[in-house]
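Researcher: Go.
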Amino acid sequence: MNFFSQYALFLAETVTVVVAILAVLIFIISQRRKSVTAAGRLSVKDISEEYEQIKDDMLISSMDEVEAKQFNKDLKKQKKNEKKQAKLAIKQKKQQTKSSEQTADTTAVDSSAIEASNEPTQKSKPKLFVLSFNGSMDAHEVEELRQEITAVLAIIKPEDEVVVKLESPGGVVHGYGLAASQLLRFRTRNIPFTAVVDKVAASGGYMMACTANKIVAAPFAIVGSIGVVAQIPNFNRLLKKHDVDIELQTAGEYKRTLTMFGENTDEGRQKFKQELEETHLLFKDFVKEYRPNINIDEVATGEHWFATQAKDKGLVDEISTSDDFILSHLDTHKIISVSYQRKQKLSEKLSKNVVKSMERLFFRQGNGL
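Model: Structure:
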């Protein structure tokens, strides 16, 4: 009996381990499938009503009881009238469509349809599409920006406008080059496009901002830093001290200019410096093309300025916050927020805050723009 009881216990433990392993495997597979089938989600929201509600609440709070009661009564009447006008506009549009589909040889025509088609329809407000870009060093957020711009371009009309709330201290050249190219899709289609900076748009961030028709920045926002920086640690002397050799084989004279572990040469340093200067020249030419009124030699020194200073140098067109800019369009435009949310892996969620903290710590360091 002792043997059978021990065997049963062993079997139970084995089954438990197998079930646990299978559960882990099923969880991993399900997570992978989720990452494949649900890459992200586009969120489009009309935020005009939110701003209007805030405005109405503030007005009511400043009134006495009688005034507030009358205000609410008038507000309900106004909204009811707006709904009625909207329904009438839809009805008139349907009648116009029906009338246009009638054949040319039709002799009996509904007179009421003709009258309706001749009545002016209520013109809807133009839209102000609001996008946000909060960039990191590697500019991986450009994927979300690409999705948002593509969605807006699919439905935008000539009378509509776009505003991008931009925040970035810069980063890698190729990442911010692509981000700027994405924003140029608005410029090349002659769509009114404004970049608004509340905190910082420096280096690669400013490269993105200068693609806009107009740059608006908060008074103490940091802009500029039109320069290129690269720093590479070298451990060669430390390795030599511990008798560690590094063999680096390349095909091509300048396949590797500076290394982290090998012994760097003056020729390699000179070539690396030349590449930085060439990148800086491309950066300057890009800014000059889209901000032709600035003195590029004066501002392309790698320095940054507060927005109030930058306005005098032509780097910024207007001093204002993103909130005030959007509020200034509330009466004339329908405000539409557009955001694409990529589904993040668990490891990305855990490391996001750590990465952001490191970026703030090394704000003016790193490789690239």
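Model: Strands lie at 40-46, 127-134, 161-168, 193-202, 214-217, 222-224, 304-306, 318-319, 334-342.
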